[in-house]
């Protein structure tokens, strides 16, 4: 199978999963019967009013008609209407999405950028102080609840030393990019951005940094013990080349897969990190829509979250296949 | 299979690893604390003593500004005075904003975390393992269907799915009588323990897929083994082959996964409690949420200490998981679960 066909096949499978996601989300409406009507109708609404609302929402139609209508609407980019907020769901969800993506990307970049060198160092200097330090750090990192870490960061860096902001988003990363060419001072905008994003990004990224450090360390140790590494060394190849070109490359392949699977944890973590730092993203929207029983918004957010997960995993598989062409033939 | 070789490996790995010893110590400590909470907690964790509120832990004293209004010569005067609050030996870890003893709350919080962690993991395993074994053993359409369900299930982050399901179903909790208190061995303690049953069901339903994936992988590789083929040739039916030959040989990675899952579910439970979705108020996550409002006014311990309890519990379980993985099967990758 060629690389192109592999990517096409994975994309089609991904599309199937998205369809499953949409179906599950559609079914959620029936887990609590009548809630769609209750969300709109006043408490003392008469039977006639309730029936009129049901007709208005299409709830009196047979199930397959409702399902077909739901998918048809989604394809047209219509996720329904939030009666509680008086807004289209699509607008609400996509207004919040960039903030979450920004936070998740910032956390991932910090996590990946620091953890891979740390894992490699830890493996190549086994049983030295840096290895013990990295092992302890990664053990603590995978065991610490991120919302608590966030609160501790606020306690230290915002309450004790007034360095960072603790709630909201301030400027977004687009403003920082624009300031390079625009009239706003670049450094000032950058600092304003960092003041808001630093603490939530650390709170969210620590778990991943710890996880990737662990995976990189154990992967590197495995690879360094393998025959080809010893053969390469015996042939007189420089140690750094063997380590970073051969061993690290083979270590990163499984690390990438785990990262794809753990993306759900990243998004889940973002939900609660956003709650701690009042970050105006999808996570706070999800929590808020549950507390206000705003089901259309919850459904729309779930579809966007599920679809993003599938999209990223298809991309991860493509990268994986590119790095390790054997995968394509499995 | 638990054979003499397995026990030998466990012992050998344990002797050589300081981390395994620390892990076992932490886990046994937490199990003990959770089981005998009424004897260990110095106070009823729910008892409010408003005159004892916001006491700092031993070794720390806190200065705070207290504003009082008084009637002086027919006028209301507000007096702000700086008072020093000193710890009280009766409350070694201090008290929260309602004067509840922090140590007692942390001791009782261990029950919620462990019970939800263990019951949630058992439920996830009871659903996931049979489904995974069956699908991996039979392959074909059943397997395809399972893998697609697993893909869809993984597309929703555990926390988001749990929050959504609890939001839709409500937060049910059941009261389980505390046997020690009912039998009269411990007085002045809560008579029942609040079990957030919805949380147990939801985390079980959310995390079964990890067990199904691992069990399926094992069944796939075991179905081609000689002894499985032999049993089939001898006319054994599928259920008994899965039960007698596949499961016992697949159990090692399942046990390792279960350990990781208890840790993941404890973290998930604390997140749900933090967000107010759990249905119990005696939980580490809930106390962190309460304490969060007080970090800017100086009462740092209310949010900090329950978090340390979560961290050390999860570290203990993770170390135990590493020990089991390293000694049972060096070939298993530590894929983790979902927190």
What do these coordinates show?
The complex is a heterodimer of chains A (330) and B (339). Chain A has 330 residues and is mainly α. Chain A has helices at 3-28, 35-38, 47-57, 63-75, 89-124, 129-143, 146-160, 173-181, 186-224, 227-234, 239-261, 263-277, 282-291, 295-323, 326-329; strands at 81-82, 87-88. A two-stranded antiparallel ribbon of chain A has the order 1-2. Chain B has 339 residues and is mainly alpha-helical. In chain B, a hairpin with a 2-residue loop joins strand 1 and strand 2 (75-85). The longest helix of chain B is centred in the middle third of the chain and has 37 residues, at 102-138. Classes of the chains: A mainly alpha (330), B mainly alpha (339). The interface between A and B is large, with 56 and 47 residues.
Short summary of the structure?
The complex is a heterodimer of chains A (330) and B (339). Chain A is mainly α. Chain A is built from 15 helices and two strands.
